[in-house]
Amino acid sequence: MNKANQTNIQLDMQASIDAIKADLYDTGDLVVKKIEFENNHVIGILYLGGLADPTDLLNRLVKFPEITNDEIGIIDYLVTLLEIRSNNCVETIEEAVEELISGCTIFLLEGVAQALAVDTISVQTRSVKEPENEVSIKGPHDGFTESLTNNIALVRFHCKSSRLKVEYKKIGSYTKNTIAILSIQGIVSDKILQEVHNRISNIPEEDILDVNYVEEWLTDNRMTLFPLIETTERPDKVVGALLDGRVVIMLNAVPGSLIVPYVFFQSLQVSEDYYWRYHVSTILRLLRLLCTFITLFLPAFYIATVTYHPEFLPTPLLMSVVQGSEPVPYPTLVEVLLMEGVFEILREAGIRLPKQVGSAVSIVGALVLGQAAVQAGIVSPETVILVAFTGICSFTIPATSAAFAVRFVRFIVILLAGILGYVGLMAAAILIFIHLTSLRSFGVPYLSPLAPFNWSDSIDTFLRRPITLNKKRSSLFRVKESMRSGKK
Asked: I need a labelling partner for 144 at 20 to 30 A (CA). Which of 76, 181, 337, 357 fits?
C-alpha cells in the first residue's frame, strides 16, 4: 500500500487505539491494556488473543515504577528495558495492524508518534516428527511443521553455513502470508534466483493457503500433468537441494516446501539414497526406473499383444490367456480399463478413510472384488494379476505428484495401444518423450541430463556415484561453485 494513503500514528494514544480498532472492524479478540507509571507516562499494549502472548513482556514492564521522559529515545529505551530482540518500529496505523495480525504485540506511548511492534506469536503447532509421506529407514527422521520459524531453524540446524540466505515476502490480500526464499550464496545461480523473485513478485493478490497455490503460479507449464516443481517436508532433502544450487520456497503455516528447478529423474531419487552404500542405492534407483516403465507401458503392451499380435506369445501362455478370456464378454481393452479404474477407486478410498481402516479396506476390497470379478466372468485372472502388479510398481515412485502423472498418462497409452496395437504404443512413447523434452523448469530442460545428454551428470542420475568420487556439483542448475570442496 502507498504510504501516502496511510494514517500516521497519533500523539494522542487513544486516537491511535481507536483507529486500530476501526481497521480491525472492532474484532472481539483484540486485547487492549494500559499501564500508567509514576511519572505519568502511559503505555498502551495491543495484541490479538490466542495469536500472541506478551505475558513475559508485561511481567518485566510492571517491575519498573517509571520510565524515562526522553521522548526522542523512548522507543530505544523501552527495547533495552524489556530486553527485546525481535522488534520493529512502526509509524502508521496500517503497519501496526499488519504487525498485529502477524502475531506481534504493539506498544503505544502517549505523546509519541511511533509504536513498537514485538514478535510474541504463540500459536500451538505440531511437534517435529517424521513426515508420513516421506518415510525414511536411514538418516534423519525430522520433518517440517506449520511454523515457518521452526522450519527455517531446522534447515539451519542441518546446514550451519553463513552463506545460507533467507529472504521474506508478504503475499495475499486477506491471508497476508509470509513466503521465505532460501538459497546458498556463492553456489546458486543469480539468474535462477532472480527468476524466482520475479515470478513471486508477479503473483497477484491471491489468498495463498498452501505451497501448491504458489506452485501453480510459479510453474513454467500449467497444462502438463508432470510436476515442474518439487515438494518435500524433509529438512535434509532441502539442504541437499540447496547444496546443489537450487532454490527453496517456504510458506508460513504450511509444512511443505517447494524446490526449483526440478527435472524428471529427480522424481525417482530420495535423500535416503546417500544414506545407504552406493551399491544398494544404485540397485534401488534402477529398480524404481524399471517400475516406472512397467507402470506406464506394461498394461498397454499386454493389450496390444493379446489383441493384435498374439503370435509373439509362447503357445502355452497364449492358450492360458485364451482360456482365461473365454468366459469374459468384453475385449481386453475394456477389461484392463475396468480393473485399472477399480484399482484407482480403491486407492483413493484407502487414502480418504481413517488410517485404522483405510489399509484394510484397500487390501480386502482388492482381493474380494478381484476374486468375485474372475468368478463372475467379468475379467480374466491374467488381467487381475497384470493390474495388481502394475499398481504395486506404481508405489515405488517416491514423488507423489510424479506418480499421479505416470498413472494418469498410463490410461492414454492404454487407449492408443488398444486402438492401434504396437503402432499406438510406440506413438504414445514418442509423444510422451517429445512432451517431456519440451518442458522447462526455470529454464532447465526437464529431461536433463538425458536430453540434452550430459555424460557426467547422467552417471549420478541413473547410478549412485560413490561419495568419495562425487566431487563436483551437477551442472544442470548452472551453479557458480562447481566443486563441492568450495574450490571452483
From this structure: 357
Q: Between 400-420 and 278-308, two packed helices, what is the crossing angle to 10 degrees?
A: 30
**Strands 257-260, 230-232: parallel, antiparallel or unpaired by DSSP?**
antiparallel
C-alpha distance from residue 37 to each of 10, 31, 108 (Å): 20, 20, 14
Beta-carbon contacts of 142 under 8 Å, excluding residues fewer than 6 positions away, are: 128, 129, 130, 154, 234, 235
Beta strands (DSSP E) in 110-193 are 115-119, 164-171, 177-184
Would you mind telling me the total number of residues written for the chain in this entry? 488
pTM of the model: 0.83
Task: Give the E-state strand segments of 97-160 in sequence order.
Answer: 104-109, 115-119
Least confident of 76-90, 148-162, 357-371: 357-371
pLDDT per residue over 400-422, tens digit each?
A: 899 999 999 999 999 999 999 99
Residue type for 266, please?
Q
Cα 352 from Cα 365, distance rounded (Å): 14
Residue 18 confidence (pLDDT) above 90: yes
Closest CA to 215 of 248, 190, 244: 248
**The three cell numbers locating residue 259:** 524446490
Residue 421: left if φ>0, alpha if ψ -120 to 50, beta else—which one?
left
- What single-letter amino acid sits at 414? I
The C-alpha cell at 373 is 470379478
> Which residue bears the cell 481402516?
357
**Nearest-angstrom CA–CA distance, 323 and 305:** 16
φ, ψ at 49 (rounded to 5°): -60, 135
User: From CA 310, how far away is CA 305, in angstroms rounded?
Assistant: 5
Report the run of H or E that residue 259 belongs to, with start and end: strand 257-260
Q: What was the pLDDT predicted at 367?
A: 67
Q: Which among 406, 396, 430 has a CA at the least distance from the CA of 226?
A: 406
Q: Taken in order 305, 311, 312, 316, is the CA torsion positive or negative?
A: positive
Q: Which residue, among 248, 180, 237, 224, has the nearest Cα to 401 in the 3D structure?
A: 224
Q: What share of the chain is helix, strand, coil (3-state, %, to 5)?
A: 50, 15, 35
Per-residue confidence (pLDDT) for residue 133, from 0 to 100? 80
Q: How far apart are CA 264 and CA 224, in angstroms?
A: 13
250 with 178: CB under 8 angstroms? no
- Please write the tens of the pLDDT for every residue from 349-393: 777 777 666 666 666 666 677 778 788 788 888 888 898 899 889
Cell of 321: 490367456
CA proximity to 62, closest of 35, 84, 87, 43: 35
**Could you give the 3-state DSSP secondary structure of residue 180?**
strand
